[in-house]
Structures
1.
Amino acid sequence: MKNLEIKGKIADVEAFQLSAVACGAKKQGILVQKDTYFPVREGRLKVRQEGDGRGELIFYRREEDGSAERWSDWSACPLADPAAACAVLGAALGVKGVVEKERTLYLFRSARIHIDRVMGLGDFFEIESKAEKDEEEARQTFQHLLQVLPIDENAQVQCSYIDLLEKSHAV
């Protein structure tokens, strides 16, 4: 899969949520997620554990050009026992770090809008616009959301939560 994404700090979570609903995004619920990252040669490898016991193994690569708006290629597979997968991968590769968050999920066309409360970091948004059919449709949806959501250009983040936690030494 391929998507166009952006991430940033949120100063006013309620205003961001109201803007998401006002633009037509549909709230899907609140997810409790624990992402365990493993060191790999390139890209990112993590096991995501959901609060309901589900999990998946996720591998992704992102453009690393210093831009806040980046294309990402990713693949995922469901895990019957994500805790056991973490133990096996941790024993084989070591653990880079863990990110725990509460994610409020909204859907708009082919895009996901995340409002994340990340333990040790604070409140963030993520927009991920999937290139299901073609990249141009994903880009148009993405650009529309950038225009209607209260995104502060100075608050945009160009790295993963795990990187932010490493920088703050909270991993």
2.
Amino acid sequence: MPVLGATWRALRVTEHLLTGVVIALAISPLPRVGIARPWLPGLVSWWHRRLCRCLSLRIETQGLRRAPALLVSNHVSWIDIPAIAALGPVTFLSKAEVREWPVIGWLSVLSGTLFLKRGAHQTGAMTQQIAARLQAGQCVTVFPEGTTSDGTTLLRFHSRLFAVAQQSRLTLQPVAIRYGGNGEPDPIAPFVGDDSLLPHLWRVLRRPGMRVEISFLPPVASPVRDRRGLAEACRTAIAQRLGLHDPPELELDTAGELLPGRAAAGR
């Protein structure tokens, strides 16, 4: 019976992705004929809410999301993205590889996702794009760990993108994501290591009712600190909310990167 239930949910997800493709084909030409799409962020949020229902996720929230704001979140799984987006319109900063994912990559481009290619020295230009989105009244979510963890620890937070918080007055809000319940982390949710999307999706579909807890924490208080201080303030707030040991003070170089030999301190 669990396989039958997972198969039914897989069919629902397939139908939902096809629905997204049909909608995308219908609305993508509109700007070329001069038709604005102010309703697009709301439509994208609705699409993510429906995806979460197809996945049979149980999303629980604590705190209030600020808008506009730079949302700084820990990163456990690809599920983080639809779970956060289901709660309201938001733009994500994603790794460039996501752009190449079948269907999802194309839909991500249409929804306004910002893509960052590792090692391409795009930080300056990306900071400007994030600032423009925030000044336009949007929320932008970043995952400063740069990759996913298993949810029981926090990796170091890359501080370079926090430069946007030094350039303009904005709300910087930490967001803590936890999978599981009763103090036990969910073993299925983490998307780590050599995981591939489709096998991981099947494991998720076989586990209906997965609990996702999203906590919107108090914004980082003024006065504005340097980007390293802002990164550490967000990391510490998230660690405390997740009940992890306070992460140690990291020794970084002037570019905001971890000094050699200090990698273990960030885990």
3.
Amino acid sequence: MSERMQTRSTFWLVALVLFANTYSARAGVLGYRTIKVQNGGSVRGMVRLSGSPNDITVTTGKDDKICGATVPLAKLSSGRNGGVKNAIVFIQNIVEGKPFDGTGHYLLDQKKCRYSPHIMVLPFGSPLEIVNSDKVLHNVHISELGAPRMSILNIAQPIRGQRSMIQASQIRKTGFLVATCDAGHPWMNAYIMVAEHPYYAITDEDGNYAIEDIPPGEYRLAMWHEGIRVAKVDSDRGKPIRYEYEDPYLTVSQVTIEKRRPVKIDFTLQLR
């Protein structure tokens, strides 16, 4: 075999191995398959608050013309009847059902030194666009939520209006991610659920949710809410550079879905 042919053979062998490893890593994450759902049922309800958080207001100390001189570290929003906004309710153990609608554009914006939206769901395999709407430098650091915190990506956006597209291949598994800012805005955070299937709902301003077109069966219905209270503050020369929060809240309930019948399940967010 000539040296040129040997080089080409080696190239394609390496490419094949990399493809196989990538496919295996992605395929190993997902066990969900799409079907045509007939006679599906639904579940709806409300997430209510039990307990009172201690809201903390901090001095920004940087870019106050854009960010404001002070910002609240409020990580809990409640509406009528104690309903909790921005909880995620989802089915844990569903293996087949309807597909994602495929029409969503998933955007994480930075406005007045806040992430918008604060809570979002990203279908696995979808790209994520990140935008800086502020006239200041932001550095978007997205990590897996948990310990140890594994970094997924870290990008600087120094220009107002700058856009960065995060390709689907950069987010290689489902689960929860957290976005922070490493450019002197430690109060900034947002949470992203990378979802395997479309059976989820984010509660509205009054804590209501609804999930439709569920195949009949027995399921585990989970309610997730971010950690609320500050657990640790990392400082540099007396200035906060990172806020760490308590662990997220997770409550699971069993649910039986029957043909064409609605089920009502409420959750309580019991603060620690």
